[in-house]
């Protein structure tokens, strides 16, 4: 595969311009800048909050310096808390072109949109000459998430994604699975797979934290569609979700924005630390996808039973459909038909290999269904995290 | 867990899937109509009511309070006695966590 070489040595499988609003008040202007350019690899991201948040600043920094991103336009209203100078400096230090437009200083909506589009068009041409280099499988970082799950998710798509993860790790790539709130009941299974006993204890503690967090909220990570689709309890949903992680040893536990240091399988802890301050940890699936991308994921495997149609800004989403009925209804939105396993038209290993091949094709430039349909969803809300402890990343 | 490792010849789709030897439920791979009798792992189960795709059917008697097993692990406790062939879901199964 050919990829874009970035100054920090990481390689991007896409070469995007990110237009980032730094408060909701700048959202419309930023969106208008991107609208005529969405088919040219210009993606809209942003943080809606006016109050400061270290987590949001960190995620935005990781996204703006992501290997798939070649240049960034920051759109500020002018009076919000977000430290636009610090972010611009970090982007500049990463070797990427960056421009900041402040609506209150540049004459308001119309002129900011005009200036923004002019800059983006110029920089799009400029970044086409980014050096292209060979990229190996072991340089890939792949995340996985399940959304719109039903009981077929844990029978077909999730275990097949787990097979693909095992293949990726055999090739010394990096694989990240997540959502400790949906691994309740799986903590001992995961601890046994951890490369050290100390990491196993950290994983159990992370799931315990998730359980307490959701108990305080009074609502587990469970939606009506899960129940209609045959899932009865959070433990059952968790066990089905857990299959996505495959069979490899777990090399580390990370938090949003941490980039894994070496090859292997990692668990991403998405549940905030400390008191419940800001409400639900991930209000919908795209919030988790954003966090996986902030950990360096080049692309995302998304398994679905009921039928999620989302993609994401910054990194392409490969949609793996678990339920054969859903696939027939929504095939235009799906990349892999895993539900065929239930109808005897494929095995878990075959579908796992198909997913792995699709990872390589998408990394080499093939658009996914959600990319073709211009799904570029993005959510970022308030959270608080402590840094991971030393036991979370055992050395090789 | 399904454990086929070689390429197909195509096989007829199983209707009831038992994922692990410890499981006392099986999962419907397709919708099963009430009254149908199906093989499952060496026994025959007569399904008492319509079971949609992905839903669970008891394949052993389950006492009130007993753990229900899927994937070889507990997924909750029965809230009343459940007979083989009955639908297992939120009306007779509750989480041990929430």
SS element count, helices of chain B: 0
What kind of assembly state do the chains in view correspond to?
heterodimer
Q: How many helix segments of chain A?
A: 13
Tell me what portion of residues of chain A adopts beta-strand conformation.
15-25%
* Main sheet attributes: strand count, strand direction, barrel closure of chain A: 7 strands, parallel
Write the H/E string of chain A, N to C: EEEHEHEHEHEEHEHHHHEEHEEHEHH
Largest sheet of chain B: 4 strands, antiparallel
Radius of gyration of chain B: 14 Å
Beta-strand percentage range of chain B: 25-35%
Which stretches of chain B are poorly predicted, pLDDT < 50 over at least 5 residues?
A: 1-12
Shape of chain A: globular
SSE order of chain B, as H and E?
Answer: EEEEEEEEE
Strand order of the largest sheet of chain B: 1-2-5-8
> Low-confidence parts of chain A, pLDDT < 50 over ≥5 residues?
none
Radius of gyration of chain A: 20 Å
From the N-terminal CA to the C-terminal CA of chain B, the straight-line distance is 26 Å
Give the structural class of chain B. Answer: mainly beta
